[in-house]
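To assess whether the prediction recovers the assembly geometry, we first specified each molecular entity separately, as shown.
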Amino acid sequence: DAGVTQSPTHLIKTRGQQVTLRCSPKSGHDTVSWYQQALGQGPQFIFQYYEEEERQRGNFPDRFSGHQFPNYSSELNVNALLLGDSALYLCASSFGRQGEQFFGPGTRLTVL
Amino acid sequence: RKEVEQDPGPFNVPEGATVAFNCTYSNSASQSFFWYRQDCRKEPKLLMSVYSSGNEDGRFTAQLNRASQYISLLIRDSKLSDSATYLCVVNRGGGSQGNLIFGKGTKLSVKP
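The predicted structure of the complete assembly is given in tokenized form:
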């Protein structure tokens, strides 16, 4: 049984560019949450998708957007990248919005 | 003030030692509490949920004091493999289901 998978593993972009990160939830899970983890910090909640809609959002600007597909997989898009967007981006899936969240290995984004 | 605050660490202890981590949270509406473990450059993994009655899992004991808004984790007979960062996590519940709030984490190094 595959756990949560994310792609790509690593990504290097320059300021002003746009990036798309992808997440496939654990089998049987229908909810995907995205987190940003800067170096030396705990993960920070970006948003959560359930039934293909954004259900909750953390304190992140509109440059951060997402999508959930009918197969429950999800994308995180970040526009107009800033140096401060460099971080590990974690996807977590759960069954239902309150279920235990299982994290993927993350995508490490470096913005130069 | 951060919503979830932890001992800054790092904790450097010898094998066999007992180590305690403390955490406080500021939102009294918080409903669920967890300890996650994160190995270097890996994703967070759920170590244990924390209940008001206290709960134990082998060498690990977690306690919750709702009145003081305080959470603790005790590790007995530390092993080298316990070396990791321990993250205190709170779920606000209510209108914020599924939104996990992470502390900054406390790094533990267990030495031979």
